[in-house]
Amino acid sequence: MPAFPAAARTALADTQLRSNLAHATSTIRAKREAVVGEVEQWEELRLSGAAIKDRALLDLEDHLVRLEAALQDRGVTVHWARDADEACAIVGDVAQAHGLDELVKVKSMATQEIDLNEALAARGIAAWETDLAELIVQLGDDLPSHILVPAIHRNRAEIRAIFRRAMAAAGRPAPDDLSDEPAELAAAARLHLREKFLRARMAVSGANFAVAETGTLVVVESEGNGRMCLTLPEVLVSVVGIEKVVPTWEDLEVFLQTLPRSSTGERMNPYTSTWTGVTPGDGPQEMHVVLLDNGRTRALADEVGRQALRCIRCSACLNVCPVYERTGGHAYGSVYPGPIGAILNPLLRGPDADEQTESLPYASSLCGACFEACPVRIDIPTVLVDLRAQVVDAHRPSRKPEALAMRATSWLFSSAERLRRAEGASGLAGRVMERFGRRSAPGGRRTLSRLPGPGVGWSRARDLPAPPVESFRAWWRRTDGGRSEGDRS
């Protein structure tokens, strides 16, 4: 992926994309505001959620060991994965051990993060997405652009075209008379997926929460596809980020109030599935849990940025972000888009991992709307500013134009004589511009239309006021320390 500014420029030129995003995000925002407004103690719930997650992160090692023991006591095989390659290998090995060439999946950000589908495909195993939006993305050979609604960039006419074009190659075809009515599109997806649910012997899920106290995993969803994946297959593998652990069952009380309101604008999720190990004769009879690091311990070591690991993947920050609303998720180049992606990706990978990752902390106006919407009070603007500093520090000493300009400015300001001469030159430039420059507005000051050289990018979207004709030092001398003639008399 290109750096964010280049990708955003392409997205901004897509008027259909901007229309789709504006409609979808405004609808979700309005629903969220209505149900959040009903809760008088909303701010107390936000504070409680942040405290619970911080407590879990503070003693993460102890809680993970406790979770592992509770899972094993209930017949679950626990695996530890340092990175994406290890996690994908574990899932692939389980599938091949059972001689499988296909499996079904619950919507999972962690499995998207590690490119599990692609890794399984390389081993001849087809991974079928069962979430409606994920199905649209998969059939369209597309990339997700939103945490909650991965196909938010598509309208229903585009979805109908995808179903008509691609469903037959992946299983049951779309009806010949399929319209773009949402109910008909959902019915076509339901029929297409039903045969996969009934045929699949293995499923892969993530987890919204993992309760250390009981070894319980939790998935919340709105469609029921997750419930089908978690109950029908013989084998279940859950890939869980290590930050998803919460200490006790009681801690879920807060998140099961804040997550649905912040994500789908609902008072509660239509489907909340919890599973605690293997129960003979009921549900999957073989369970595996892959506890995934993949940069999370790196993020945990960042004293400012570790708060990003509180994230419960609600997407509220995306829906209120003016930058996301105009560029969409693909411009962020990651499965985690929007404000949370702008901090989570650099924290997991390192802020200087590549040019695209380096650009993400700057993909924000720092308006603060994301912090106000976050149900666990992640101070995204503060983390963004800190990551920007880390990006700059990673390139010291640097020959980038900005760094060279800062060093030149430091050299100039470190000498009173050099500064005096520069002020004189500045005054001369100001007098020239007063005569030949353009006015920014009727009666306004003269401005430069464009800086030369490296400054062209800065001045393309900004007016540069002309330097003052008279420097501060000259004015001070002329007015005898700022006193007027009347003051001196």
UniProtKB/TrEMBL annotation:
Among PROSITE patterns, the record links this protein to:
4FE4S_FER_1
Instruction: Name the keywords, alphabetized.
Output: 4Fe-4S, Electron transport, Iron, Iron-sulfur, Metal-binding, Repeat, Transport
- Pfam families linked: Fer4_8, LUD_dom
User: What region holds the LUD domain?
Assistant: 66-292
InterPro entries documented for this protein: 4Fe4S_Fe-S-bd, 4Fe4S_Fe_S_CS, FTHF_cligase-like_sf, Helical_ferredxn, LUD_dom, LutB/LldF, NagB/RpiA_transferase-like
Looking at the record, which segments are called Disordered?
439-463
Q: Name one GO biological process term.
A: lactate metabolic process
Q: Residue limits of the 4Fe-4S ferredoxin-type domain?
A: 308-378
- Molecular function, one GO term: 4 iron, 4 sulfur cluster binding
Q: Which SUPFAM superfamilies match?
A: 4Fe-4S ferredoxins, NagB/RpiA/CoA transferase-like
Q: Which Gene3D superfamilies match?
A: Alpha-helical ferredoxin, NagB/RpiA/CoA transferase-like
Q: What is this protein called?
A: Lactate utilization protein
What lineage, starting at the top, does this entry show? Bacteria, Bacillati, Actinomycetota, Actinomycetes, Propionibacteriales
